[in-house]
Every structure is written in structure tokens, then in C-alpha cells.
Amino acid sequence: MKKLGFAILTAACALSIGSMRASAADTKTAAAPQPKIKVGDTAPDFKLLDQNFKTVSLSDFKGKKNVALAFYVFAFTGG
Amino acid sequence: MQNFQANLKRLEAADTQVLGISIDSPPSNGAWAKQINVDFPLLSDMDHQVLTAYGLNKEYDIKGAKILAARRMNYLIDKEGKVVEMQVDNDAIDPSKVVDVCERKKLKE
Known about the structure:
Chain A is of the alpha+beta class. Chain A is 33% helix and 15% strand.
């Protein structure tokens, strides 16, 4: 009986540790490498489609406007 | 992106074009832009070309699935194409520093 109790306790511990790990993994992310582009660097040009399927290039704005380029993780999330 | 939209008039007045960028598809970005009333371009880097060029691929663990997406980052790029300001990860949520730099640059011109 004691042995069974111990086994149940062990199993319960393993389960709770497992679920703790799972919840930590939901929010924790792997360490990201350093960004390649830093202050003072020339921003690499690009050509991409916007939400209206219009092509937009960084070079479209050269000599005309500053560009605030905001990388975001996923649509439909905050920030 | 909502924070950039809230500051859009100030940024535009300071000669600054806002561009959002992620790995989402154009229709997905379109639906989201509509939902949150964003009217600046949200660019689609589905094949990670730009993320790779800028070194901003980051692995996210979404309920056990590993997904590569953009690291959160704001770059302010001047008219000559040089990076003059950057904010990474959680510092990139509030764009007021970018707004301040744009407005100060505008005063100097």
C-alpha cells in the first residue's frame, strides 16, 4: 500500500513538473541572435507586398522620407 | 502597430513613413489592418528574406510548436538609408522614442 502511495505521489510530481515545463515553454523563447543591422549601418533594401498587394520598397522613400520600419511577431497580436 | 497608428500624424508631419513588417500573408495583414484601423503598409515577408537580411529570425514556442517569426524591432532609417535609431524586443512596443527622434530631426532640417 505504501509503495502504491509513493508511486502515485511520484507520478503526480512528474505530471506537475511536466505541466510547469509546458506552461514555461508557452511563453519562453529561445535566445535570439544579435540583429545584423545596427545604428549607423545602411538598411538593406527590400521589395515586399503590403496588405493591398501593392509592392513597397525601402528605396521608394530614399531622399524623400525617413522610414520607421516596425518588425512585429504576428498579426492579430498586441504591439 | 496600434501604437504607431496612434502616432501616425506626428510621424507623417516629421517626414516619416511607417512600414510594418512580419511573416503574415497580405490577406492576413489586410484583415488585421482593418480590425485595428491601421492605414500604413503592413508588409509581408513570408519567405523570411528581409528577416534574414536584418538578422531578425526568432524561434517562438507556441504550445509546443516551434515557429520562426520576426523578432520585435523598430528601426528608424533616415532619408539617406542609414539606421539612426533602433529599439529591440519589449523596448520596441512604445514608439515614442522614434517619434521624438523624427521630430528633433525635422527641427534641425
